[in-house]
Amino acid sequence: MLELYGARFASRLLLGTAQYPSPDTLKRAVEAARAEIVTVSVRRESARARTGQGFWTLIEQLGTRVLPNTAGCRTAKEAVATARMARELFGTPWIKLEVIANDDTLQPDLFGLVEAANILCAEGFEVFPYTTEDLGAAERLVAAGCTVLMPWAAPIGSARGLINKTGLKTLRAYFPNTTLIVDAGIGAPSHAAEIMELGYDAVLLNTAIAKAGDPVKMAQAFARAIEAGRLAFEAGLIEPSDMATPSTPVAGTPFKIDHAS
User: How far is 128 from 122, CA to CA, in rounded Å?
Assistant: First the structure.
């Protein structure tokens, strides 16, 4: 089971809710993925509320837990204000904290992220910080009170997969008791399986499913890949080797002797 701030979930796949071709496709994708948590942009949903759209009704029908996010925030002050708005709007202490440093890569601003996390944790928020594999930032986020970290695999929406696999492995080894959820950059089910094989606890996806030719089938594919990757990690993967290792040992194997020679 996946445990997040005391709540337990059977699914290890979290889904974003943006960019789907229709509300019905989003609904069917969430159901196909068997996702129990969806992320929602606070700013986008505030705008939708003003225009009378029924997005919140759809989420309520799905029966999923909502993880609001501070997408689009560029400073700690802006992210903190957005988080406070989210708590009022969605009635949850959960917040996926994003403070963006660069418009081209959407890389997290680690200084602003740590600053905002300290403020929000002190106010009783349960913070899910969108970060990198940087160990120093991770230490400061955990010290602030974050029991979950959400490092990227690659820039948001890039579909590049694990661009720093060694860094992600080190982060997992360095924080064995912290829940780690990869967020951003996953493009294929094989990427998701790979990160789960490293011992990560879950994966958050949006673009790779929402923009697929068939989002519903892709959601199902990712759900199966994440389950397979987790099962492989729990089973214990063998270590790679530079040399061949025969599956049938040669020692003790009888050989036919050619007497004619």
Answer: 14
The whole-angstrom separation of Cα 40 and Cα 128 is 13
Catalytic residue among 96, 169, 211, 217: 96
In 3D space, the residue among 235, 199, 205, 233 whose CA is nearest the CA of residue 220 turns out to be 205
Contact between 212 and 21 under an 8 Å Cβ cutoff? The reply is no
Amino acid in position 58: L
Whether 96 is catalytic: yes
- Strands 7-9 and 2-4, how do they pair? antiparallel
Give CA 170 to chain center in angstroms.
Answer: 17
| Span 150-205, pLDDT tens digits | 999 998 888 899 999 999 999 999 999 999 999 999 999 999 999 999 999 999 99
Q: Which two tokens stand for residue 13?
A: 């796949």
Residue 192 to residue 194: CA distance in whole angstroms: 5
Which is nearest to 188 in space by CA: 239, 224, 164?
224
